[in-house]
Amino acid sequence: FSIEDLKVKGKSLERAQKLEKQVKAQVEVGTLAELEILQAKSEVASRDQLLLSAQDLIQDTEDNLKNILNYSFDSQQGRSQLLPSDAPVFDPGTEGTLEEAIQIALSDRPDLLVKKKELENRNIEVKYNENQTYPTLDLVSSLGLNGISGEAINITTGTVQGRSKFGGDYGNTLGDLGSGKYYLWEFGVNLSYPIGNRSAKSKLVAKKLEVAQLLLDIKDLEKTITVEVREAYRQIKTDIKRVHATRIARKLAEEKLTAEEKKFEVGLSTSFNVLEFQEDLAEEQSNEIKAIIDYKKSRNRLRQVKAQTLKENNIKLSEGDET
Fold first, then answer.
1. Quick one: 32 and 72 in the same domain?
2. Among the listed residues 95, 67, 108, 88, the one whose alpha carbon sits nearest the alpha carbon of residue 8
3. What pLDDT score does 167 carry?
4. Among 109, 194, 228, 292, fewest CB within 10 Å belongs to which?
5. Distance separating alpha carbons of residues 173 and 162, to the nearest angstrom
């Protein structure tokens, strides 16, 4: 806005300077009083001050932007001038319906998607903790091999008591073990249930409370998103009407100024009146530019609340190569 407004103020100064020359010429030939030239010069000086203030505002804004971009003022980037790539143009787009905009936002907003993914994880935790409150029933089984050979020995004295019916030595024992002749198997069930099971039940209650709170958070966020979309969408419609209204006002101001200038040339108006109409035109031009820029801001705001900024500007983020 500042750059376009600077152009408006520059044109306004040029019109005042042109009128000053016309007034001076008429004063010299005696068709206007000396007072008229003073009025014209005063207005030129006033508009020159407005132009200087507009230039200063642009420089301040540029410095703030460079500071945000972390440009060093001693670098080439810091010394360069930042200029927009194109002038603001009123190009009303197709925003779709309000209902469509709300649905897009509710399906694509990252903050809402994160909440929903968190809810999925919390539901998994609820199911796990619910499972911990049930009795545990385990099916158990085992199979073993025995190697039985050698002499019967008294375990107290260590003396041989007699020969075992499974004759043989240590080698025979290993052989029996490998042959699988003597095996042992077991099969059964194991049921366990902690009395009261307070620990598991309290964890389950806590997880269910977390899910309930998260559901409320999601509902609140959905309401907030809906309100944001409605406000942005409504602001776009308002700004479109503002652009049309300011455009009509600017055209009327141009016509009135042209008519007043013609009256001044034939002596039917004063320089004061012409200067007033010039100021009116400059004001309407600034209003139109501001309305156009506000409209563009509103469109960007709607893209933002719908999480469509990258998509609608055809920007794709590529994943970096993994090394």
1. yes
2. 88
3. 52
4. 194
5. 17
Nearest-angstrom CA–CA distance, 290 and 287: 5
Rounded CA gap, 91 and 88, in Å? Answer: 9
Q: How many other C-beta atoms are found inside a 10 Å radius of the C-beta of residue 97?
A: 9
Question: What is the DSSP code (8-state) at residue 86?
Answer: S
Q: In the structure, what pLDDT confidence band is assigned to residue 87 with cuts at 50, 70 and 90? A: low
Domain contains 319: no
Mean pLDDT for the stretch of residues 142-159: 63
How big is the CA angle at 315 (ends 118 and 65), to the nearest 5 degrees?
95
Tell me how far apart the alpha carbons of residues 41 and 19 are, in angstroms, rounded to a whole number: 9
Listed in sequence order, the residues at least 6 apart from 232 whose beta carbon sits closer than 8 Å to its beta carbon are 298, 301, 302, 304, 305
Q: Are 291 and 242 in contact (CB under 8 A)?
A: yes
Helix (H, G, I), strand (E, B) or coil at 165: coil
Domain at 255, CATH number? 1.20.1600.10
Determine the Cα–Cα distance for residues 307 and 116; give it in Å rounded to an integer.
16
Q: How many domains does one find in the chain?
A: 3
> What are the contacts of 202-209 at 24+ separation with CB within 8 A?
203/129, 203/132, 204/126, 204/129, 204/130, 204/132, 204/133, 207/122, 207/125, 207/126, 207/129, 208/126
